[in-house]
Amino acid sequence: MDYKLKALASDPVLFVKQGDTYLSEDLKDQAISSYKKAAELYEKKGDTSRSQDVQERIHELEDEPESSPPTIPPEPSAPIPFFAVILVAVLMGILITYYLIKHKPKNG
């Protein structure tokens, strides 16, 4: 189930903080809604300068393009360890030596 905790507050700062929290979760519409509530409460309190600041933040959010999910760059291919190259060379040498000894022409 999807449980959400909602709190009602008359302090506009709490709405602004709620908006910031929503932004961190990529829920821009809910953040804008929280900022609008904060702006209304600042207006009711008569604090027009803070209300204007919040309105500007709303406009910034509305003008931002939708963020795309982060892309994970492909992992670079790891270089072959020197030890592995030596090991392969030694094994090939053993096989070639075995083959040459096994198929050595018999003189005599």
Question: How would you characterize the overall build of this protein?
Answer:
The chain is mainly alpha-helical and 108 residues long. Helix content is 63%, strand content 0%. The chain is built from four helices and no strands. Helix 1 packs antiparallel against helix 2 (28-45). The termini are far apart.
Question: So, CATH architecture of the domain at 12-63?
Answer: Alpha Horseshoe
Task: Find the structural class using helix and strand composition.
Answer: mainly alpha
Compute the average pLDDT.
Answer: 78
Major pleated sheet: none
Specify the overall morphology.
Answer: rod-shaped
First and last CA, distance: 88 Å
Number of helices: 4
The count of β-strands is 0
Say what the CATH topology of the domain at 12-63 is. Answer: Serine Threonine Protein Phosphatase 5, Tetratricopeptide repeat
Which CATH top level class of the domain at 12-63 fits? Mainly Alpha
Proportion in β-strands: under 5%
Uncertain segments: none
**CATH superfamily of the domain at 12-63, please?**
Tetratricopeptide repeat domain
What are the secondary-structure elements, in order, as H or E?
HHHH
Please estimate the helix content. 55-70%
Q: Determine Rg (CA atoms, Å).
A: 34 Å
